[in-house]
């Protein structure tokens, strides 16, 4: 009986240590994760979701991590937290791309004040609409299932207890920021083209009719045109963004 209790105690310690190690990565990711980790979600719900992911992942990761002892080593706390932040930031950069695209589109179509305070982060104009639409689409497409797969695959790319090097992190961060702005510019391209055509037409009209106040005549046109363009292009913008988001989920460290 004593030997059996000792085996049960050793096994429970291994399970507890593995759960703590998994929670370090999952909890750090949920600090910056889009959707489930947004500021508009109450802290208790975010914590409950992180614990639920931990309970689900711990049995699967038990043979992979091979944690011994009641507590993981001190270095594991930093490496696992860094790994979770990397996964979360890879997805957060995609949401940032939607925000930047909305800002570019809003400035190009003179709609920088519509829905400016609809989210915890102050976004001009269409940024809030695109961000909320994109995050909602990601959640509806099975974000929780993809996250489980991402966490399970992440241990092959970011091994347990292995702290990434500063040079690798710096290169990864520069690439992610560059890809984020590139995607944002691509998504906002229809609004930039429309703005260019509008300003060229306005200049031609002003040259032909100097007495006409073309700014007062053209302002309603660009506002109406921006809203119509948002209605027409959003069904095409969000699927393109979702493809990039799913690519980041499949490979947080890889190029999109």
Structural class: mainly alpha
Tally of discrete structural domains: 1
Low-confidence segments, given as residue ranges, are 115-120
- Indicate the percent of residues in helices: over 70%
- Euclidean distance between termini CA atoms: 56 Å
Order of helices and strands: HHHHHHHH
| Subunit arrangement of the protein | single chain
Mean pLDDT: 80
Main sheet overview: none
- Give the strand content: under 5%
Q: How many β strands by DSSP?
A: 0
How would you describe the shape? elongated
Q: What is the radius of gyration computed over CA atoms, rounded to a whole number of angstroms?
A: 24 Å
Task: Report the total helices.
Answer: 8
Task: Put the structure in a nutshell.
The protein has one domain (2-250). Helices cover 78% and strands 0% of the residues. It has helices spanning 2-32, 43-65, 74-109, 126-140, 143-157, 166-187, 189-208, 214-250.
Explain this structure to me?
Mean pLDDT is 80; it is low at 115-120. The chain is elongated, with a radius of gyration of 24 Å. It has one domain (2-250). Helix 1 (2-32) crosses helix 2 (43-65), helix 3 packs parallel to helix 7 and helix 4 (126-140) runs parallel beside helix 8. Helices cover 78% and strands 0% of the residues. The protein contains 8 helices and no strands. With 256 residues, it is mainly alpha-helical.
């Amino acid at each position: 009986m004593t030997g059996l209790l000792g085996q049960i105690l050793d096994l429970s310690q291994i399970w507890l240590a593995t759960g703590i190690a998994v929670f370090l990565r999952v909890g750090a990711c949920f600090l910056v994760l889009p959707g489930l980790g947004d500021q508009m979600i109450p802290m208790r719900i975010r914590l409950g979701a992180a614990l639920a992911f931990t309970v689900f992942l711990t049995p699967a990761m038990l043979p992979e991590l091979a944690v011994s002892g009641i507590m993981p080593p001190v270095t594991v706390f930093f490496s696992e937290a860094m790994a979770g932040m990397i996964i979360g930031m890879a997805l957060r950069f995609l949401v940032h791309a939607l925000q930047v695209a909305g800002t570019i589109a809003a400035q190009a179509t003179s709609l920088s004040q519509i829905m400016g305070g609809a989210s915890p982060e102050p976004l001009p104009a269409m940024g809030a609409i695109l961000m909320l639409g994109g995050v909602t689409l990601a959640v509806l497409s099975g974000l929780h299932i993809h996250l489980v797969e991402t966490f399970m695959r992440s241990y092959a790319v970011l091994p347990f207890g292995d702290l990434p090097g500063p040079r690798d992190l710096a290169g990864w961060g520069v690439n992610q920021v560059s890809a984020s702005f590139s995607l944002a510019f691509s998504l906002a391209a229809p609004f930039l083209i429309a703005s260019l055509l509008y300003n060229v037409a306005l200049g031609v009209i002003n040259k032909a009719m100097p007495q006409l106040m073309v700014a007062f005549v053209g302002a309603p046109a660009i506002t109406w045109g921006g809203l119509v363009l948002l209605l027409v292009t959003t069904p095409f913008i969000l699927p393109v963004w979702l493809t990039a988001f799913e690519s980041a989920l499949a490979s947080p460290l890889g190029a999109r």
